[in-house]
Amino acid sequence: MRILIIEDDSRIAKPLAEYLRRQHHIVDITTDGLEGWEWSQSGLYELILLDLMLPKLDGITLCQRLRAASSNALILMLTARDTTGDKIVGLDAGADDYLIKPFDLKELAARIRALARRTPQIHSPILIHGEMQLDPATQQVTYAGSILSLTPKEYMILEYFLRNPNQVVTRSAILDKLWELDKYSGEGSIKTHITNLRNKLRASGSSSDLIENIYGIGYRLRHK
Known about the structure:
By secondary structure, this protein is of the alpha/beta class. It contains eight helices and twelve strands. The relative contact order is 0.11. The mean pLDDT is 84.
C-alpha cells in the first residue's frame, strides 16, 4: 500500500514510517494538516494515518474535508485522546478506524490488515502468472516452486506488474506508485531493479524475459 502519515511528532512518525517500510509499504510523511491536504490530492494514497492534533489544519477538519472531496483513501486516526466522545467525533468525521497513542506497532499493522480486508481493491488473493505465484499475505514469491529472494523494491515492482497483467506500465507510473516523494529516483534506478528481477526469474527457470521492454514507454508482463 502507499501510505501517507500526517503527524507533527517526529518521534512517532519516523519509527512508524520505518516499520511500515519494512512491511514493503511506500510511506510519505508530512507534519501539518494543510500540507497533508495538498499531498492527499495526488490520489496516490490508499491509506492515511492521521494525527488528531495538527498545526495549520486539525485532523478532524482535514478528515471531513477529505470525505467531502470524495476521497476513497482509508483513514486511520492516531490520537492521545481516549474518551468515547472523541472516538465518536473522529469516526463521524469519516475515519475508518481509531488508535490511541501510545500504540503497539504490531497492533497498528493488524489494524491496517483488517482495513485492507474490507477493501477489495487493496486486498487480493495469491497472484498467479504462469508458474509464478506471489502471496501478498506472506510476501513470498515462487517460480516453478522455487522461492525467489527479492529485495523490497524488486518485490514491489513485481507485485505491481502482477496486479496490472498485460498492461504497459510506464516508468513514470512506477516512480509515482513505488517511490516516496522525498526520495527521487531516476529511470536508471528502475532499469537496474528490472534487470536484477529478470536475472532472478531466469535463475529460477524462466526461459524468457517475462518482463518485456516496450520501447520508449516502459514495460509489460508478458502474457502466459
